[in-house]
Specification:
Radius of gyration: 34 Å
Distance between the termini: 85 Å
Shape: globular
Number of domains: 5
CATH superfamily of the largest domain: 5'-nuclease
EC number: 2.7.7.7
Domain 5'-3' exonuclease: 3-262
Strand content: 5-15%
Enzyme class: transferase
CATH class of the largest domain: Alpha Beta
Subunit structure: Single-chain monomer with multiple functions.
Organism: Peptoniphilus genitalis
Strand order of the largest sheet: 3-2-1-4-5-6
Length: 885
DNA sequence: ATTGTCACG
DNA sequence: ACGTACGTGACAATG
């Protein structure tokens, strides 16, 4: 058999792979796109060439002999991004396990080594293949040497032979050196001759073949301008030729025999591919090294039937007491938009579709409320809301693909079922975005062909079943089964109810406040223009910055990456230096109130019910908290009186009151429980004011002698502890010197030793395991903890400290929510849980149930969990949110 | 689509 | 020596 030598230009492939692919990231936060693309290209080339010999060449960092010739060589190269840098050692690790020889030199570049190898190969009569994305290699092509030139993407490859080069460029391979001498190379910062590009260059080389010959016959060049350019650039051309010529006699220790291809270390490769989540790579390995979970999805994934009578599923349900379902709808039922279809799949049966109008709702109610039939779904909250509207009380729903995936990795940006599917399976996907498009032209389900629509939802329902066991297994392995079944799944129904019920909102109250705000804004606007001496857009930070810092010469306190910072803390520091500052702060405040809380809220009041149905989201935050959108009801103003007035628009339902219950210091209590700090536990046990207690320790004064300022500062220290403290952060917050902040912290940790130890332990633990967890085993992976970059690592450490605290508090209130909701339901009370604000619950309470509700809320919230610290709940009632808080 | 700002816990 | 508090969502301006 003939010897075939595959020589790989590692550096160029690595860069090409990185820029050709989106930034892929593993669950642990490892970037893998360059590695993936690299391995893919190498494997493709190996498959194509079937080499007997193999080598990879890399550039090393630092200067090479070319820098001696021209100091600016590669001077235009930008710093490699961090995401790329990280992948570098991992590629080498893979190559090691592929048993490929890696060559690099402090003096020569990858192409010089490759040139030398191809020369060696040529001399021995090998067939040589150079795999690269760099055109420079064309000069190495000869009868025995071809270039595998990667094109756009990572799968396309051109095979460059002598003939192909002649055909494409009309010149000989070696003449590429001459061409580059003339046109230069911007990526390597080789100058060439100014004003000569590929076109002119090719024409000249075609005619004169070498630059020596060109300059010997310079008078034969047509065109005066061009001749001038050539004469002016002669030096540069010859230097560029030197720079652009690939060296072919780099001294090497290895002989060709050393590059003989050897078998891979499959065991190790399989391990790495798993870590990198390279499922398709695993498939290329011999059978016994493949990943078991990778499962082929076939076309039946998309099969379905349409039915006219829902009862057709009844016989299937006889054997399998399990079904997945999804309503297909373009809107919200509480906005009077009815679903178009219902998709159902009884386990192991075909997916069935039925028009919404054709549904026998009594039958639907029967199966949905049948405790013996388990239900599965994806984004079940949406479907439960629809069922609620139909008066159906779903029972025994046991899996929600979205919620499950969120528990497995809470830091993803979305939980699109197609993306989840791609992470578990190999093929057979349908992307909703491909179907509906995005942006302004986004279609609705109604716009789609019925066939496309059904195909997609058939995929969804089939995927729910395919994922069920895999996700549940993982959840079990990570000890989150109880968290999933006893907390998150029951909560889905609670959140569905909160969204469905909504909160009674009085638009007239908002209109009244609006009138006053409009007046205030008008006056402020005029006064600001007056002092600025011109009119401008006060809402534009850019324009405001110009007025304040260029025109009016206020001192610049802080800059953002685009210009001057005009944020409130900056303006705060400028207070007293001019009346305009206070006016801008006021203007900002009222402008915010108007846009977000007057206009914004008015726009989302349901016309028919006069209620606002905020969507409470369960899979958004990295810590386990719930979030609220459209509108966000978790950030209604309270800190300033003007803003707080907005709360008067949120009313109890007719004749009732709002009962508001909030946990007192829940995060600090959680911290006391987690750290088991004796002092802190003691303080809570004795019902002390925790900020006052902190102040007495930080400032070394008696508990009773703490003054207001000290308490205020101690409060900031406590916040800092919860956030993962830094002296700088505290100093900024309190506007005190960093040294003073450091002293506060040292005093604090010197006294609360349990907390100090806990913090160190938590960080170590996070670094070792790659994640931290809450009291109830909710997990958050923190790849930042092992970053080389100080800032990123510090950020990771603060996350490691904050997440267990914030997350455990979130766990606690979630448990309380489920208990309160279920108790209200069990007792058949009219009162409904309608809002959660992280440490606070609001129940829209019927008048005759007030005492009962207050009692049960306090009891269930304070005793929702069993901790070594007491939980304390404060209660308030009122006709509206202003009064109940 | 991104940035700056600001509302909340 | 590094430059920072943790977690969200909405809006207006601007690229």
């Amino acid at each position: 058999m003939d010897n075939k030598f595959l020589i790989i230009d590692g550096s160029s492939l690595f860069f090409r792979a990185f820029y050709a692919l989106p930034l892929l990231k593993t669950k642990r936060g490892l970037y893998t796109n360059a590695i993936y693309g690299f391995v893919m290209m190498v494997e493709n080339a190996i498959e194509k060439v079937k080499p007997t010999h193999l080598a990879v060449c890399f550039d090393m960092k630092g200067k090479t002999f070319r820098s001696e010739i021209y100091k600016d060589y590669k001077g235009t190269r930008q710093k490699t991004p961090n995401e790329l840098e990280q992948q570098w050692p991992l590629v080498r690790e893979i190559l090691d396990h592929m048993n490929v020889k890696i060559l690099e030199s402090p003096v020569y570049e990858a192409d010089d080594i490759a040139g030398t190898l191809s020369k060696l190969g040529t001399e021995e009569g090998f067939e040589n293949y150079l795999l690269t994305g760099d055109k420079d290699y064309f000069q190495l092509v000869n009868e025995k040497t071809k270039v595998l030139f990667t094109r756009k993407g990572i799968t396309d490859m051109d095979i460059m032979t002598v003939e192909k080069i002649k055909e494409d460029y009309g010149i000989e391979p070696l003449e590429f050196i001459e061409l580059k001498a003339l046109m230069g190379d911007s990526s390597d910062n080789i100058p060439g001759i100014y004003g000569i590009g590929e076109k002119t260059g090719l024409k000249l080389i075609h005619e004169f073949h070498t630059i020596e010959n060109l300059y010997d016959n310079i008078d034969d060049v047509s065109g005066k301008k061009l001749k001038e350019k050539l004469i002016d650039g002669k030096m540069s051309a010859f230097m560029s030729k030197k720079l652009g010529t690939i060296v072919k006699d780099v001294p090497l220790e290895e002989s060709l025999d050393d590059f003989k291809k050897v078998d891979y270390d499959y065991e190790k490769l399989s391990e790495l591919y798993r870590e990198f989540e390279f499922n398709s790579m695993l498939d290329r390995l011999p059978e016994k090294y493949r990943k078991e979970e990778v499962e082929e999805i076939s076309q039946d994934n998309f099969e379905f039937v349409e039915i006219k009578d829902l009862k057709e599923i009844e016989k299937d349900l006889k054997d399998k007491k399990s079904l997945a379902f999804k309503f297909i709808t373009d809107g919200k039922i509480y906005e009077d938009v009815k679903p178009i279809y219902l998709a159902v799949k009884v386990k192991d049966s075909e997916v069935k579709f039925i028009s919404y109008e054709d549904i026998d709702f009594d039958f639907l109610k029967k199966i949905m409320e049948d405790e013996k039939v388990e239900k599965l779904g994806y984004s079940l909250k949406e479907d439960i809301i629809i069922l609620m509207d139909l008066g159906i009380d779903i029972k025994n729903y046991s899996h929600d693909v979205e919620i499950a995936e969120y528990l497995l990795n809470s830091t993803q940006s979305d939980y699109d079922i197609n993306k989840i599917s791609m992470a578990y399976f190999k093929n057979g996907y349908l992307d909703l975005e491909d179907l509906l498009g995005k942006g302004a032209k986004k279609k609705t389900y109604t716009d789609l062909d019925k066939d496309d629509l059904f195909k997609y939802f058939a995929f969804v329902l089939n995927t729910i079943y395919r994922l069920e066991d895999l996700q549940k297994e993982k959840i079990d392995e990570e000890e989150m089964t109880s968290l999933y079944q006893d907390m998150e799944l029951p909560l889905v129904e609670v959140l569905a109810s909160m969204e469905y019920v909504g909160i009674n909102t009085d638009e007239a109250v908002l209109d009244e406040i609006d009138k006053q705000i409009i007046e205030k804004l008008k006056t402020l606007e005029e006064e600001i223009y007056e002092e600025a001496g011109e009119e401008f857009n006060i809402n534009s930070p850019k324009q405001l910055g110009v007025i304040l810092f260029d025109k009016m010469d206020f001192p610049v306190i802080k800059k953002t990456k685009t210009g001057y910072s005009t944020s409130a803390d900056v303006l705060e520091k400028l207070r007293g230096k001019g009346e305009i500052i206070d006016k801008i702060l006021d203007y900002r405040k009222f402008s915010k109130l108007k846009s977000t809380y007057i206009d914004g809220l008015k726009a989302v009041i349901n016309k028919k019910t006069k209620r606002i149905h905020s969507r409470f989201m369960q899979t958004v935050t990295a810590t386990g908290r719930i979030s609220s959108t459209d509108p966000n009801l978790q950030n209604i103003p309270i800190k300033t009186e003007e803003g707080r007035l907005i709360r008067k628009a949120f009313l109890a339902s007719e004749g009732g009151v709002l009962v508001d219950a909030d946990y007192s210091q829940i995060e600090l209590r959680v911290l006391a429980a987690l750290s088991d700090d004796k002092e802190m536990l003691d303080a809570f046990k004795h019902g002390l004011d925790i900020h006052r207690k902190t102040a007495s320790e930080v400032f070394h004064v008696d508990y009773d002698d703490v003054d207001d300022r000290q308490r205020y500062e101690a409060k900031a220290v406590n916040f800092g502890i919860v956030y993962g403290i830094s002296d700088y952060g505290l100093s900024q917050n309190l506007n005190i010197p960093r040294k003073a902040a450091k002293e506060y912290i040292d005093n604090y940790l010197g006294h609360f030793v349990g907390i100090k130890n806990y913090m160190a332990e938590e960080i170590k633990n996070g670094k070792d395991k790659g994640y931290v967890e809450t009291i109830f085993k909710r997990r958050r992976y923190i790849p930042e903890l092992n970053a080389k970059n100080f800032n990123i690592r510090s950020f990771g450490e603060r996350i490691a400290l904050n997440t267990p605290i914030q997350g455990s508090a979130a766990d606690i209130i979630k448990i309380a929510m489920v208990k309160v909701y279920n108790e209200l339901k069990k007792r058949n009370l009219k009162s409904k849980l309608i809002i959660q604000i992280h440490d606070e619950l609001v129940v829209d309470t019927a008048e005759d149930e007030i005492e009962e509700v207050k009692e049960l809320m306090k009891d269930l919230m304070e005793n929702s969990v069993d901790l070594n610290v007491k939980l304390s709940v404060d209660m308030n009632t009122g006709a509206n949110l202003y009064e109940s808080k």
